[in-house]
Design goal:
The structure is a homodimer.
Chain A: H1 8-14, E1 17-18, E2 24-28, H2 42-57, E3 60-68, E4 77-87, E5 91-100, E6 103-113, E7 122-123, E8 156-160, E9 173-179, H3 187-193, H4 197-204, E10 208-213, E11 215-220, E12 230-240, E13 243-251, E14 257-271, H5 273-281
Antiparallel strand pairs in A: 1-2, 2-4, 3-6, 3-11, 4-5, 5-6, 8-9, 9-12, 10-14, 11-14, 12-13, 13-14
Amino acid sequence: MAEQIPRPADLETLGLSFDEDLHHARFDLTARVARHDGGLYGGTAIAASVVAMEAVTNRGALWVTTQYVATAKLGDSIELASEVLATGRKVTQVLVRGTQDQRLLFVSVGSTATPREGGLEGQYLVMPNVTPPEDNDPMILGFGRSDGFRGFTEQVEYRQARLGEKEESAPPLVMWSRLRGGRSVTPAAIAFMADMVPGAIARAAGLIGGGASLDNSLRFGRIPRDEEWILLELRGQMAIGSHAHGSVKVWTRDGALVAVGGQSANMMNMVDPKEFEGWESLGMAPPL
Amino acid sequence: MAEQIPRPADLETLGLSFDEDLHHARFDLTARVARHDGGLYGGTAIAASVVAMEAVTNRGALWVTTQYVATAKLGDSIELASEVLATGRKVTQVLVRGTQDQRLLFVSVGSTATPREGGLEGQYLVMPNVTPPEDNDPMILGFGRSDGFRGFTEQVEYRQARLGEKEESAPPLVMWSRLRGGRSVTPAAIAFMADMVPGAIARAAGLIGGGASLDNSLRFGRIPRDEEWILLELRGQMAIGSHAHGSVKVWTRDGALVAVGGQSANMMNMVDPKEFEGWESLGMAPPL
């Protein structure tokens, strides 16, 4: 049986509701889809774009790029408008604009697709050898806030894994991630959890912290039903005058590759780990 | 001295001309920017988008995603219209639409940027060990045409390199590439040459050929002046019912990472290598 699109669990995660024609949707910027500072979390923008593309085409997401243009504040109502650019027998191409009171917040382009029977199937990469989620403690992301505001991490649990082998390049940041409440993985859920490349760029540079994402680009594979944990393999690639690029690969615990992607960011919020230890002694939580 | 933007060499490669306000540009679909079948080559669409974004912002390209919506035929005139979505002190966000007679051919989103003095600088990946361009013979791309039509490869030379080491995953396709006539590498030139992921997906699957790119997403590093050869390290990642994803890393011969990217494609044009040997005996050139 084909899954219902849009998926009810995605609507619940994002607080998203659609007009009857499925070309328009909206959500309120509440704490559970916000950044730690209350702004619009990039993962929310790309996840909502994925759901909007799937809804208007009645197909699963194949790839999406979301450009982050402006932010919004807690309580804002955010509108999504989808434009179908081309419809093929198996692939549809879509553009989504996210606005708040007609102010552009983000633009997404992407394709949804129905797999072609007898078409090419395969996976050509191997998952890194890491410790399982059960062997790792939950990570606390973002500078600790004394008011208990947790933003989107109300909905997401992250656990940093340890790598089994050394490699020639800077090691990736490997994190297990799941939605709280036993919700299973969907393309939108991956998009919601995987907006984490800036932290990996900081790590690759020997620093702690992150930056402001400029965009996120994700490409989806076949996602098993009822999968809870995913592994985010995050790599910093390079930085040029504060602007930096990195990649993400997303795996199931059985080693199936379910998404790949890339992200650029403005790396403005980093500290030296030595400096950070001082902050920790003040009772502040790690930024990433 | 800062480079002139748009770069005259890019305008020459693409046959691109701008209106005085730099928000609009156009080029004719001639053989030298076409696919082997005379259609619009994806690398041309993304390269022209890069030049359009740079021109309207007077900054170098940082990242770009181009969604390929429709094709065009030899002799068509293609218009580009750029919309600046947001301008920051160091980063500008742009959307470009490519049309032919008001028919949408492609949409590009991306950022241009001015490096921030004292901002993060670094490279966190290592180039694979490959044979230099001088040790490899030119590759002939595309099925040979008896009429001598070469499309964009009139302007680009490719040489397949050999890898120095084995790895656990399927080996990447590694190709040296340069513009003919001694022109040096620019972001647009990389975009023009690097639209080659489908061939790497076919290789990873043990097949020969390629497919129709759905999009291309590229992120640029610091590109040395007067660099001629670049190495394309191309990897197939996965395929789901004929729709597949892959990545590209672009290196100079000194091992500087100058671009990274990802691409999705519909893998429709592949043959088994055994079957292909028969075609070769008929005097046909390899598809990739």
